Amino acid sequence: MTATQAGAGRVRASDAEREQMATILRAAMAEGRLDLAEGEERLAKAYAATYRDELRGLVTDLPDGGRRALAETPEAKAFARTALRRHFGGVLVIGAILVGLWVLSGVGFFWPVIPLAFLFLGLAKHAAWHRHGGYRHHGDWRGRGDWRAPAEYRGHGPRGRGYRDEW
């Protein structure tokens, strides 16, 4: 079998993916799920991995693929707090603009109550999501990422129904 046949249909892993896997493994070691020797062995395999399926195999025996341990790191918690503060600040700014428009319009009915209700419901849902284990951020805890997952991760959401939680 040639090298091209061995890699047919396989996707190469990027440096960022290897580094994120190493972060997951370090978090699992800190949580006590992996001992030092096994953790170091898996870290070496993560950095030596060429393909994504090699990375996937390193965390298959960890709960939720090790992502729960990653979510419990101080960096991830700080990122979640920062994201929630940004959301709160955005809601306040939009709320102030809506109230200002209402004052300028001179309409008796306080119409901004309708969009404000939706804004605060979204903020409450965001806060509850982080409080109850909403650790599936599409991107990474260093602030790089997008509000949506890359094409190969897209599905219907974290509740199942077609969600592909792959590397």
UniProtKB/TrEMBL annotation:
<feature type="transmembrane region" description="Helical">
    <location>
        <begin position="87"/>
        <end position="104"/>
    </location>
</feature>
<dbReference type="Pfam" id="PF08044">
    <property type="entry name" value="DUF1707"/>
</dbReference>
<dbReference type="InterPro" id="IPR012551">
    <property type="entry name" value="DUF1707_SHOCT-like"/>
</dbReference>
<protein>
    <submittedName>
        <fullName>DUF1707 domain-containing protein</fullName>
    </submittedName>
</protein>
<keyword id="KW-1133">Transmembrane helix</keyword>
<keyword id="KW-0812">Transmembrane</keyword>
<keyword id="KW-0472">Membrane</keyword>
<feature type="domain" description="DUF1707">
    <location>
        <begin position="11"/>
        <end position="63"/>
    </location>
</feature>
